[in-house]
Amino acid sequence: DQQVKQNSPSLSVQEGRISILNCDYTNSMFDYFLWYKKYPAEGPTFLISISSIKDKNEDGRFTVFLNKSAKHLSLHIVPSQPGDSAVYFCAATGPSGAGSYQLTFGKGTKLSVIP
Amino acid sequence: GEEVAQTPKHLVRGEGQKAKLYCAPIKGHSYVFWYQQVLKNEFKFLISFQNENVFDETGMPKERFSAKCLPNSPCSLEIQATKLEDSAVYFCASSHGSNQPQHFGDGTRLSIL
């Protein structure tokens, strides 16, 4: 039973355009969500996070949107750059204060930004 | 340090041998997490620590796997009597607080022959 789903294994975007990566979750107890970027042979690099009390968080070119009623979040990258080409993982944790902060990961989306 | 440091990068063991992996969390981070990446993109939580205390070990296999985080030493993950199925990349992560972003090391690739 996969609690965090990234239904698109891959995505190709032209340089300068917007990249939109999607993530759905099933566990309504999740209340903290994160996006990580991963290059081959390296560990995941934290990009941006959002708490369930918000619906949007922005950091430079990266914006995460959270729709709690739909149990859906998305990562927008604008403008996309060739260096953004990597595998992007959505992760979730919660409930806060319940005693476990393990991350539950999706299976990733491979983003290719074409020059 | 400013990064999570994992050693070794690659570890090769014969089936039945012991394997020990190390992780130095970011200085000042009080939470440490271990994850196993078996299939290409699937991460499985193993165990977490708050300082030197086990915080959550619900993901640890009951036998053969153990982990420690002792004061003034790197954290460690040890696998006794390794099996072929233990071949994976093991990632360590640390965080400043309980619900703060986890920062990952580059992993240790364990190959069991």
Question: What does this protein structure show overall?
Answer:
The complex is a heterodimer of chains A (115) and B (113). Helix content of chain A is 0%, strand content 52%. Chain A has strands spanning 4-5, 10-14, 19-25, 32-38, 45-51, 56-59, 62-67, 72-77, 86-93, 104-105, 109-114. In chain A, the strands form 2 sheets. In chain A, strands 2, 4, 5, 9, 10 and 11 form a 6-stranded mixed sheet that branches. In chain A, strands 1-3-8-7-6 form a 5-stranded antiparallel sheet, with no helix packed on it. In chain A, strand 6 (56-59) and strand 7 form a beta hairpin. Chain A is globular and about 45 Å long. The termini of chain A are far apart. The relative contact order of chain A is 0.34. With 113 residues, chain B is mainly β. In chain B, 0% of the residues lie in helices and 50% in strands. Chain B is built from no helices and 11 strands. In chain B, a hairpin with a 2-residue loop joins strand 5 (43-50) and strand 6 (53-56). Chain B is globular, with a radius of gyration of 13 Å. Chain B starts with a strand and ends with a strand. At the A-B interface, strand 4, strand 5, strand 9 and strand 10 of A face strand 4, strand 5, strand 9 and strand 10 of B.
